[in-house]
Amino acid sequence: MSVEHVSMRLIGDYARGDTQLAADTVWALEAHLETCAMCRSRLAACVATEAPGIVTLVDTVRAVLEPQLDAAVRMPSRRYRPSWVSAWLTPVMAPWLAMTVAVVLMALLLDAAGLAPLSGASPMVLIAPVLPLCGVAASWSRGLDPAHELTASSARAGLPLLLRRTTAVLVVVLPVLLLAGWLTGDMTAAQWLLPSLAFTSTALALGSVVGVTRAAAALVATWGVVFAAPACAARRVPLVLQSDQLPVWGLLLALGIGVVIARRRAYSAL
């Protein structure tokens, strides 16, 4: 494939359904076809000559669906959904994000009632570093998203879609945590914001190997067992959230981002 357009040989192999084409080649070709009208025209002409059976099938399907599509176009839509919504959000994220906000409110209520498990610190200290992982896990979950198969099979799936949905989660969760941290005044934003971003980047990095949902769940469990539970039992803030540990979290964040960039092609197969 050239830098600007697809070669006619590759278009012909794709039109004929050549099974010898590598998966990453097919993905790159389909992604290019989405944005290149010239290559789509060449593909249409190639299909007409190389695979007439596909043309016949498409014409048959169009003849059956055209009356239904015309009726659907004439029917006024009751709900308008901007095109960018599906690119950034998935319906299953809504209850998870609502649950995230509810958890923050519960932590604030516990703090206001004086029932905090940590002496001199809010429950926000325990939940803030890993709270975004709940939404991140839900944003790319095979079991929770009824449209996962359709989304994952599209040419633009993979890392770009995952990053958009992760950004949507952070845009909702981080302001809530910032407001909660300001209300409690227990920690500076950097003490939990940097760990939150580090956990998120680590979840995406590990997700290229085991899946984002599994990676996020494993990190939450590790945080709870190794750090949160002992700190709660000792009635103190976890040592890893002290100010002198911020460079370590920054390094972990940078490593996570580096792994995501290095393994960016692996996300198209998730």
UniProtKB/TrEMBL annotation:
Q: Per its record, how is this protein called by name?
A: Zinc-finger domain-containing protein
Keywords recorded for this protein, A-Z: Membrane, Transmembrane, Transmembrane helix
Look up and give the organism this protein is from: Kitasatospora kifunensis
Q: Where are the transmembrane segments?
A: 84-109, 121-141, 162-183, 189-209, 216-234, 246-262
Output the lineage of the source organism.
Bacteria, Bacillati, Actinomycetota, Actinomycetes, Kitasatosporales
Which domain of life, per UniProt? Bacteria
